Amino acid sequence: MKVVILAGGLGTRISEESHLKPKPMIEIGGKPILWHIMKIYSHYGFNEFVICAGYKQHVIKEYFANYYTYNSDVTFDLSDNSVEVHTSHTDPWKVTIVDTGLETMTGGRVKRIRPYVGEEPFFLTYGDAVADIDLNALLSFHRAHGKTATITAVSIAQMKGVLNVDENGVISAFREKDEQDRSLINGGFMVMNPEIFSYLQDDTTVFEKAPMQTLSEKGELMAYSHEGFWQCMDTQREMKKLEALWETGNAPWKIW
Length: 256
Description:
The chain is α/β, with parallel strands linked by helices. Helices cover 27% and strands 29% of the residues.
């Protein structure tokens, strides 16, 4: 089962860092937050990734092109241009990086990667948030209800799209935030059936607007409640918070 990661945005709210690299490549503990997200999925045995790149997409491609070297002890003999790899600490990942466009909206990015996931369910998440989520439980929940889409709902001071969820987990409304909200929010870590592509029109489609609203109106959008750790990295303050947690040696999302 493939894992699709949205990693193409401009990251304007953390421009102190993102003017140099895509936000998912901003480092926590010396590793891109994208790497941390992938390690979470890999812990549960999901090792095939499709990365929706856009802004400075070459940085992501170069990182994975050199991943083996970055994570190995290497001797470079410049006299004969040879390379000897001594110890390797790589991951069993298959990574497809798709240039989904510079100005493409989130729904458009997902639509563009359809050839790489085919007609199978897939994970979908944002390239800027980590959690100690049980992905096996999330997948089991999704398979049990049989609806088109599942998103992970987290409770936090309101910053993201707001969810109205009934006692059975059915999402009745998906809307933009209001200043007075302290409600359940979309924390990413989603599961999608291939029917989701019929809700995506073109590059201008914002995944969090019309597609999610239509799904909720049809009763095809479900919420998986995650009550553990979750943190996004929208701002430099949040980046420093994650860095501080990592430096303790006991970062909550480090489940591997």
